[in-house]
């Protein structure tokens, strides 16, 4: 069905352009030789934790057999990445786990074949002059700004609240999509706590007594938050399988360089980070961030060890308790290490 739908779409497109698709003779051979682009959707903004993935996609990909080029397409709305992979508008996605889990549970034909990074670099930050704990926020009906209700940081935070026996309903969760807007709301005192990346927390700490209240990797050990995804139908094609392996080899190479070489990572931050301040950061600021990412968070595992059903299963109850999932997703079907194992074999 997948192939026939593509064929009809191509025939229709070809007719609109005045081409004879799949025909005999010169026109048919010309169509068969048409350039093929590997379409990869990724985040529109890159924090410190996203830099190795961006480096892999934008400068680390060698020529992929069967494709003439790789098109890396920035996507502003995170859930849209998974949606476009499902629709066939993108071949691969650097997608958030929350949207991917929800789509798979709803029946979407998706596979998580790699990690964009392991764990999460996002933390919960408060103004320590005003707030000392989540319990304190809950007692006065305080507010916490999140990107969106149901996203991975919201779910993670609800899980922490429940572990501390705090009713999540006692806190006002406010949707605020921009991390900059969330930081400004915290500084202005309009909210009591916000999620932000570790480097953003370090920057904010220079402006006042802003402290990290929750570190997810300490609460859960591992919190899968972003992965490389593809549709099961797309992966049936041999050329696509090879392309998936090639992308994962590039990502693994970037992970390993990041872990082993601060100077290389710094050069990639200067090239691919979205924040002007982060791009220009000196060693005194950036090296502690790199150390946190590589040794404490372990964001760039050399073999993507946490890409397995057991690691993801540990967080499913939290998603279920937060009302983000029913908990029925088949992780054994969703997570596929086949292409990762081939990439590891090729790199050995």
Would you write up a description of this structure?
With 348 residues, this protein is α/β, with parallel strands linked by helices. 48% of the residues lie in helices and 16% in strands. It has 18 helices and ten strands. It has helices spanning 2-16, 25-32, 51-59, 78-87, 97-105, 134-139, 152-163, 179-187, 198-205, 216-220, 238-260, 262-272, 276-279, 283-296, 309-313, 316-321, 331-334, 338-347; strands at residues 37-43, 69-75, 92-96, 110-117, 122-127, 143-146, 172-175, 193-197, 210-214, 226-231. It has a five-stranded mixed beta sheet with strand order 2-1-3-10-4, sandwiched between helices. The chain has a three-stranded antiparallel beta sheet with strand order 8-5-9. It has a two-stranded parallel sheet with strand order 6-7. β6 (143-146), α7 and β7 (172-175) form a beta-alpha-beta unit. α3 (51-59) crosses α12 and α4 (78-87) packs across α5. The protein is globular and about 60 Å long.
Computed over alpha carbons, the radius of gyration is 22 Å
Note poorly predicted spans: 1-33
In terms of quaternary structure, the protein is single chain
Reported for the largest beta sheet, the result is: 5 strands, mixed
Major sheet: order of its strands? 2-1-3-10-4
The backbone outline, from C-alpha atoms, is globular
User: Given the structure, what is the number of helices?
Assistant: 18
Q: Write the element-wise H/E pattern from the N-terminal end onward.
A: HHEHEHEHEEHEHEHEHEHEHHHHHHHH
The tally of beta strands, per DSSP, is: 10
Mean pLDDT: 88
Secondary-structure content class: alpha/beta
Strand percentage lies at 15-25%
Helix content range of the residues, please?
40-55%
Distance between the termini: 37 Å
